[in-house]
Amino acid sequence: MQNETTAVVPAPKPNLTWTSLKKTFRLFRYVKPYWGEFALGMVFLLISSLAGLAFPRLLGDLVDPKSMGDLLHGLNKAGLMLVTVLVAQAIFSFFRTVLFVNVSEKTLAALRQHVYSHMIKLPMRFFLERRVGELTSRISSDITLLQDTFTTTLAEFIRQMIIVIGGVVILLITSWQLTAFMLAILPIMMVAAVFFGKFIRRFSKQVQTQVAAANTVVEETLQGIINVKAFANEQFEIARYRQRTNEAARIGMKSGKFRGAFSSFIILGIFGALVSVIWRGVSMGIGTPQLLSFILYSVFIGGSIAGLAEIYTSLQKSIGATENLMEILDEPEEAITPVTHIAPADQLDGQISFRNISFHYPSRPDLTILKDVSFDVDEDQKVALVGPSGAGKSTIVSLLLRLYDPIDGRVLYDGKPGTSIQLSVLRSQMAVVPQDVFLFGGTIRENIAYGKPDATEDEIEAAARKANAWEFIRNFPLGLETIVGERGIQLSGGQRQRIAIARAVLKNPRILILDEATSALDSESERLVQDALDKLMEGRTSIVIAHRLSTIRQADKIIVLDKGQIVEQGTHTELIGVDGGLYRMLSEMQFSH
């Protein structure tokens, strides 16, 4: 039971530098195909922003005594202009928003597709150093942050700048002395209000954190109520909950003082600044219509300057998201290409040679996994890899699939270096049936067809029959259309194994890799799976990682590994006769139970 809740510390926001902005500008290449729509949206944004600048001036004209005289005669030119500007601004704002949203959705769809296709082509080294949660966050949360940049932040930045620059120019034309007075006090008050508001929001987050911690106490104690009562710890839990709720109340009360101070600041500071501008304008003899327009422009400018602080924060988040994405996109990817046809020269016969292979994982250079390993596998041979946990069996399979390349030595296929064969072509002629079968959450049909996406109904059924899977598949009400659930949770271990075998049968590989997975199955499932594996291994080169030595007695060759080195090679009969041999010792340990 946890007594404390660890707060998540947010990552520091990056500074706005020219280098970070250059990375952000790289995103605009995804906008390029939709540049026409984007440019039109910018035009609408410019027009609606300029129309907004006319609003305070027209309101001033509306209260002009001359305008009031026109009103009495049934005609008010300023009023009509004001309505026209408002309608035009609404129309242009609508089309600008629609265009920006359309462009951003299409751009971000292209960006998501590019990031995903790049990520899935990255070498295994990359995935060793990253967590799945982090990568999914990059492709979802980070790109969603960029969506706000394209649809809102960029448009708001341009609009606020137009209002600030245009408004200041108009005010300078009206009265440069009053403008200087206004700029000295009002924008400072607005910006101070923004930062004061952020300070108060931080207290609100602290209250939420403490409330969450208190809720955690409730959740833990109710889930573990048997333990609470068994240890007679009711009073301890009551005290723990009281501490959390009291802390939330203390922070809330402290926040209340600052909220009160904030309200006082708004009344005294911002409204006081507006009163000062009005007083100064009246003392300078500026008329009521011009003074009203001046005050409205001042409020617009102050609000826009305050808004720029929020935009700066949004840009910081966007730059952070961009840097994370660019870090992934800058990773060199594997040379993965679609395989539509395999040239005769690239077709494997199935002969494999390991020549003086040494290897350590990129993330652990100090830990050598394989040391000067050499062996040969002839075409259509069944070769088993045996040894204690951590001996290097799975690493040999990873090197065979070229998930990694050796540090020293070479892997040869039919006498040709693996690096001379196109990666997709090489892997397309191999299939893996792992110990821990991973099934996708769709149907049985989709999981079997993963071995050959264009397979026909008859081919899928034939593969399922050969894998001893057809019997249980056809007994399901939906047959091949049965949903297997996340990671195949709806199926038993033996059923999952047979689906994986059917997938490998359908691929019809030249080299088959089996991480034997019968050890966790009941005897009936083990018999069916082993029978399916035996059928699958016929007529192709097979590499078997053996956990149960009874399943590899008929192997053409058994390679025994220990601490990253080959210590024995031979058939079962040869190795079982070696006095003091590791294979004999492992066999005696298994068969004595």
UniProtKB/TrEMBL annotation:
PROSITE patterns noted in UniProt: ABC_TM1F, ABC_TRANSPORTER_1, ABC_TRANSPORTER_2
GO molecular function, one term: ATP binding
Cell compartments where the protein resides: Cell membrane
Gene Ontology cellular-component annotations: plasma membrane
Listed InterPro entries: AAA+_ATPase, ABC1_TM_dom, ABC1_TM_sf, ABC_transporter-like_ATP-bd, ABC_transporter-like_CS, P-loop_NTPase, Type_1_exporter
UniProt keyword terms in alphabetical order: ATP-binding, Membrane, Nucleotide-binding, Transmembrane, Transmembrane helix, Transport
Domain ABC transmembrane type-1: 39-317
Gene3D superfamilies: ABC transporter type 1, transmembrane domain, P-loop containing nucleotide triphosphate hydrolases
Transmembrane portions of the chain: 38-59, 79-103, 157-174, 180-200, 260-279, 291-309
One Pfam family it belongs to: ABC_membrane
Chief location of this protein within or outside the cell: membrane
Domain (ABC transporter): residue spans on this chain: 352-588
Membrane topology type: Multi-pass membrane protein
PANTHER family named among the record's database cross-references: ATP-BINDING CASSETTE SUB-FAMILY B MEMBER 10, MITOCHONDRIAL, ATP-DEPENDENT PERMEASE MDL1, MITOCHONDRIAL
The family this protein is said to belong to: Belongs to the ABC transporter superfamily. ABCB family. Multidrug resistance exporter (TC 3.A.1.201) subfamily.
Name listed for the protein in its UniProt record: ATP-binding cassette domain-containing protein
Species this protein is from: Chitinophaga fulva
